[in-house]
Amino acid sequence: MHISLDGFVAGPNGEMNWIKVDQEIFDHVGKRIGETDTALYGRVTYEMMENYWPDAGSKPNASKHDVEHSAWYNKAHKIVLSHSMKGQALPNTTIISDNLADNINEIKQQPGSEILLFGSPTATHALMQQNLIDGYWLFINPIILGQGIPLFTNIKDKVKLNLLSTQQFTNGVTGLSYSVDRQ
Length: 183
Description:
By secondary structure, this protein is of the alpha/beta class. It has helices spanning 23-33, 43-50, 53-56, 64-75, 100-109, 121-129, and strands spanning 2-4, 8-10, 38-42, 77-81, 93-96, 115-117, 135-141, 149-150, 161-168, 174-180.
């Protein structure tokens, strides 16, 4: 998830035009997501992804990133947290509308790789509140927004983290990967 230095994932109106991405970050992300087969989204982010990624790689002048991410997206199983999509049957997609902890824990027990959560601040907050996040993969952007949608909000208890890796990108973004210490 991209985050400002002061902890916001979007501006006050959801704007994300401050996020720095380039081919170096796309290559890093592509390598990382290639290790997983499941993506989790909130409804808003899922709808945004569905409107772009399924055919992004086959468009004229598609970038290397568009071709690679579109191929991954089309193969990945999608999990969507949404009350309004309850009961919908979508190909290669699981909709979770209630019993969040039970459903996520059941999915975690199934064969396959880890589940990567993409964007989706509301979904992230819901997962945090139920202690369902096992790690954080953050891209710290060199900007202070001063206001916006915070990543960390309404945290009930301290969450101890273990640093797994850091990556400094030439555009000034710093990638941090943490696991949650369950001890």
